[in-house]
Amino acid sequence: MFLLPRLVWLLLSVIVYDVTRTYSSVTKNCPKEHVAVGHAWYTKLLHYFTLLDVDNDGILDRRDYVDRTVERARIYFGADKINVFNETLSKGWFTFWSVPEDKCRKNVDIENAIWIHLRGLEGRELEEPSSVLWDKGVFKAADADEDEGMSVKEHKAFCQVYNVRKGINESFSYIDENQNGCIDQQEFIKAAEDFFYNVNNESLFFGA
């Protein structure tokens, strides 16, 4: 009759050890120097945060990340793309930005955003990151004619949905790695992942 409590204690010990090991691995591989003001990674994420924080209150909540972005998408994306786009952002908010294990979190500031992405660095070489689902969903929404390529016009619409006003042409050239005048899905994914998870290099993914 004493086996069940001992088994529960053993399982809890394993869970605590695994969580502690994962957190230690992330912070060891990605020390705080990576998010110092002025660092390329911090600058990129701050730029993205600012694009979404349209009311300039220093906080991102679901309305900023999902609702207001979808409202802009209704202007620049095709009507048949809105449901897919809304689903992509909603999943992103609940599985990534709002941090499911912290049920009380309804919004994030820039430091929260940095550490959320820091956590996302863990295990990226072992399996397809969940962030790639965002990349694919956004690309599909922006690909108006569904030709599996993003034209200059479609890319501009993507930029406008994300409040990018400067460096749109530079962004297109940056993402269009083979310079064939069309951004394919792999180029888009590569540039997006580089923007969010390359801690050393600058990026023009979201313009200048």
What layout of secondary structure does this protein have?
Layout (H helix, E strand, L loop, with lengths): L2 H27 L10 H13 L7 E2 H15 L5 H16 L9 E2 L1 H11 L10 H12 L6 E2 L1 H10 L6 H8 L7 E2 H13 L11
Antiparallel strand pairs: 1-2, 3-4
Describe, in plain words, how this protein is organized in 3D:
This protein has helices spanning 3-29, 40-52, 62-76, 82-97, 110-120, 131-142, 152-161, 168-175, 185-197, and strands at residues 60-61, 107-108, 149-150, 183-184. With 208 residues, the protein is mainly alpha-helical. The protein folds into two domains: 1-30; 33-197, Recoverin, domain 1 (Orthogonal Bundle). Helix 4 (82-97) runs antiparallel to helix 6 (131-142). The model is unreliable at 7-38 (pLDDT under 50).
Give a quick summary of the entry.
With 208 residues, the chain is mainly alpha-helical.
Which CATH first-tier class of the largest domain would you pick? Answer: Mainly Alpha
Low-confidence stretches: 7-38
Shape: globular
Number of helices: 9
CATH A-level architecture of the largest domain: Orthogonal Bundle
Bin the strand percentage.
under 5%
Share of helix, binned: 55-70%
- Strands of the biggest beta sheet: in what spatial order? 1-2
Number of strands: 4
User: What is the typical, i.e. mean, pLDDT?
Assistant: 78
Assembly of the depicted chains: single chain
**How many structural domains can be distinguished in the coordinates?**
2
Largest sheet: 2 strands, antiparallel
Structural class assignment: mainly alpha
CATH topology heading of the largest domain: Recoverin, domain 1
Q: Helix and strand string, N-terminal first?
A: HHEHHEHHEHHEH
What's the N-to-C terminus distance?
66 Å
Rg estimate, integer Å: 19 Å
In CATH terms, the superfamily of the largest domain is: EF-hand
